[in-house]
Fold:
Amino acid sequence: MSVANPYKGLRAFGEADARDFFGRRAVIDDLADMVGWSRVTMVIGPSGSGKSSLVSAGLLPVLRERSARVATMTPTEHPLSQLRTALTTIATRRCIRMIAN
Structure:
């Protein structure tokens, strides 16, 4: 029987890697709770400290389990356009009217 190696070295964990992302449960739960009651939640830290993995493989799966509306985006040359597109995937009709303006 072959067992997959859960360690990715320097590569970031993505949402599909949630099963292999472990050891940060308390931080993930705290972040998920913050998202529930805070208007803005930020994950900040030095480059390479695991912020993207924490959000992608840790926080997003928990939010989806809680039936939260989640939109993701990667900024490009036109980040506001990308943000608008991402938000319209989860927005209510009222919000879509506001985004369109």
The chain has a mean pLDDT of 84. The chain has two domains: 1-69, 71-101. The first helix runs from residue 25 to 37. The CA atoms of residues 4 and 20 lie 10 Å apart.
